[in-house]
Amino acid sequence: MNRVNVQSYVPSVHTYLGIQLLFPEDLEYDRRYPLLVLLHGRGKGRGQWEHMVYLEDLVDEKKIFVAMPQGNQSAFVNLMSGERWGDFLNRELPDLLSGWFPIRTEREGRGVLGVDMGGYGALRAVEGYALQGAVCPVCDLADLYETDYHPYPKALFGPKEDLARNGYPVLSWEETKTSSCLREQMQEALQDMVKRGGELGWY
Questions:
Q1: pLDDT of residue 84
Q2: Residue 191 within a domain
Q3: How many whole angstroms separate alpha carbon 130 and alpha carbon 102?
Q4: Residues of the chain with pLDDT under 70
Q5: Cα-Cα-Cα-Cα dihedral sign, residues 48, 169, 131, 193
Q6: How far is residue 143's CA from residue 155's CA, in Å, rounded to a whole number?
């Protein structure tokens, strides 16, 4: 497995972002590979998934690219402040990576999986990804207003009472995991994503 850390200016969020990228060692440059994007949770960074689950076999055996972008506290959605994290996730990130690496360009070649606030972003990313999944997702951003979330959610998403009107719906999510260990739930969700990808001819 190869590992590359990319730092690139992203116009949609007006800053430089770090993206951790894993890909197979034996690339065939006449072939395009699927892309799996893993989104981190609140208070975490782009390395959360690699620290919590084992990705090497997945990358080398399934022959896929795995990207882990930094999302700060954005929940990977467009913010009231003007930073368009949702646009970055759905459009800019896939286009950026497929311009640098032999990654499939069509929506059907992409999957996204997130944990916590990254789970909210992943479940909202229906425009850019054929496969979506989440682990312990924040399904209602209103819940963040009762926590020590920083920056304060009102600055990111607007007043609590206006969330739905501002484009932040409450998401329905049926929790089926029986494990109480976040690491195990992340591993199970990753395996499920890979299984569904195979069924769809994702790789």
A1: 96
A2: yes
A3: 18
A4: 175-179
A5: positive
A6: 15
In a domain, 203, yes or no: no
Q: What is the pLDDT of residue 130?
A: 95
Number of domains the chain contains: 1
C-beta atoms surrounding 8 within 10 Å: 14
Residue 53 is part of a domain; what is its CATH number? 3.40.50.1820
Do the Cβ atoms of 22 and 65 come closer than 8 Å? yes
Sign of CA dihedral 80, 86, 88, 92: negative
Least Cα distance to 200 among 100, 110, 138, 74 occurs for 110
Q: How much is the pTM?
A: 0.94
**40 in a structural domain:** yes
Question: Among residues 77, 39, 75, which one has the least CA distance to residue 186?
Answer: 39
